[in-house]
Amino acid sequence: MTATATLEPVGATSEFSLCVDVLTSGPDFRRADSNGDGTVDISDPVFSLAFLFTGGATPPCLDAADANDDGLVNLADAVATLTELFGTGGVVPLPYPGCGVDVTADGLTCVTYTECP
Question: Which of 64, 71, 76, 89 has its CA 20 to 30 A from that of 41?
């Protein structure tokens, strides 16, 4: 999207062009909520591990399952969630602990996430 604006400082006219990138990346979601139940708790890393290693259900929102926001859903996401819950915290990036959109460009999608207002 491109917008043009005109500034009028004292006695002069200046024109400039402004380029704005609008990021849209699907519905709002809560990062680290792998099972999509609206809360981040011990069931989320367990859900992720079941998906990764035992053929468990696919997370409804892969962006939410990507707890460390590296663009992949893997063991590191379960570790990040466990560290957030029981360790030092501060490892899960936005949108967490609240809801929001993913501003990181990656190949993960969020097909459905109904737990955010």
Answer: 71
Only one residue has tokens 């990036």, namely: 93
- List beta partners, residue 14: 7
Find where tokens 């999207």 sit: 1
**What's phi and psi for 13, nearest 5 deg?**
-125, 130
Q: What is the CATH number of domain 26-86?
A: 1.10.1330.10
Band of residue 117 on the pLDDT scale cut at 50, 70, 90: confident
Burial class (CB in 10 A: 0-12, 13-18, 19+), 102: buried
Cα Rg of the chain, angstroms: 19
Q: What is the pLDDT of residues 6-35, one digit of tens each?
A: 555 666 556 655 555 555 556 899 999 999
Q: How buried is 94 (Cβ within 10 angstroms: 0-12 exposed, 13-18 middle, 19+ buried)?
A: middle
